[in-house]
Amino acid sequence: MTEFLSRAAKLESQRRVRMVRWSEFLQHQTNGDFWILLDGAIYDISNWILPQGDGGAIPHPGGDVPLCCRNKDATYEFEIGHTTNGSYMLLRRFFLGRLDPQDLSLVPPTAGTPSPEFLKHLRSFTSAWLG
User: Fold this and answer.
1) Are 81 and 62 in contact (CB under 8 A)?
2) Residue 43 to residue 72: CA distance in whole angstroms
3) 3-class DSSP assignment, residue 125
4) In terms of DSSP H, where are the helices of 17-115?
5) Would you write out the chain's pLDDT as a tens digit for each of its 131 residues?
């Protein structure tokens, strides 16, 4: 029974994952409205890189560094800049959906390729909401 409920919950979560077209993703590539693409998943990190409060501090420890990933897949850069599990655990808060599989060919190639070890580690966190 437990296995059945687990599979049912996974199927339900897969049905609810929003598919985002590449053209929509590209509309959210500004300083105040910024989405990133990591391993096929899309995250809205706008508030994570915007100055907050009177002092104008940016919550992201690297400031606005994620903006260097405009209009492309940020998976390789995420691997380079995020070495703690805390970084992975924050992703759930920003998750929007998945890039529509029809649009994968529209994503430009990146300078580097994420390591298989990194992808395995990333997916160990994201599989809970990606299905």
Assistant:
1) yes
2) 13
3) helix
4) 22-26, 46-49, 75-81, 85-94
5) 555 444 444 444 445 789 999 999 999 998 889 899 999 999 998 887 666 767 776 556 555 666 678 899 999 988 887 777 777 888 888 899 999 999 999 999 888 999 999 899 889 988 877 76
Q: Which amino acid is it at 124?
A: S
- Report how far apart, in Å, the C-alpha atoms of 13 and of each of 8, 97, 127 are: 9, 11, 10
Nearest to 44 by CA among 14, 61, 66, 76: 66
Q: Which residues contact 58 (CB under 8 A, 6 or more apart)?
A: 49, 50, 51, 52, 64
**The token pair that represents 30 in the structure block:** 């500004």
The residue whose two tokens read 């989405």 is 35
Tell me the sheet residues that pair with 127: none
Point out which residues pair with 52 in neighbouring strands. Answer: 57
Please answer whether residues 77 and 59 qualify as being in contact, where contact means their C-beta atoms are separated by less than 8 angstroms: no
Pick from 93, 105, 60, 96: nearest CA to 78: 60
Q: What is the spatial distance between Cα 125 and Cα 107, in angstroms, rounded to a whole number?
A: 23
